[in-house]
Description:
Blueprint: H1 2-17, E1 21-28, E2 39-45, E3 53-54, E4 56-58, E5 61-63, E6 66-70, E7 73-76, E8 85-89, E9 96-101, E10 109-111, E11 115-121, E12 128-134, E13 136-140, E14 146-150, E15 160-164, E16 175-178, E17 186-191, H2 205-210
Parallel strand pairs: 1-17, 3-7, 6-12
Antiparallel strand pairs: 1-14, 2-13, 2-15, 4-5, 7-10, 8-9, 8-11, 11-12, 15-16
Amino acid sequence: MFRLALIVCITVAPLLAAAGTVSFRVTGADSGMPLANAVIVLPRSADSATADASMIQENRQFVPHVLVVPRGTAVNFPNRDNTQHHVYSFSPARTFEIELYAGVPEAPVRFDTTGVVELGCNIHDRMQGFILVTDQQHGVSNETGELTLDWPDDQPLPRQVRAWHPRLADNTNLVEVAVNGASGEAIPLALDVRPAPETDSSLDRLQQRFRDL
């Protein structure tokens, strides 16, 4: 019994000591402005999918604009607008189509392949959203470009992390970004992104036809 207790103590103690976090601050390389919706992926396995997620259509937008889910997650697409939507994706990571509908589709869409899935709506051309599927630890930056992830205190930070943003020149893939900093402070990461597009909330003629359906 004494030997068993000793083994348990030796096994558990390092796990408790390894707890920690690492923070990042993501900005645009040219503008220096904070980047919201930047995804950072660390080289560390994440938990498998355990619950469903939702990509909502509201005010003719996908909410959230960027959704990151573990591989195997089933995603619902509830429509909260007073117009019908026709959601689709041609991305290799997950090609699918939910034809013209209101309310909540009967079945969610399961995402079993890692990668970037770009979403659109056949009725509202300006609607765009993204689902990023990964099996590694990840986080999404807030409006100030910041995010914090769990990282063991007894492990050195990787020299590079993978990053993604909707306005990357090639937003179908993640990019490698060098890490210059230490845990305990917000590590700056700069991404080469395209300028933010001008917003226009007007409806074209096709959208007008479906507004009240």
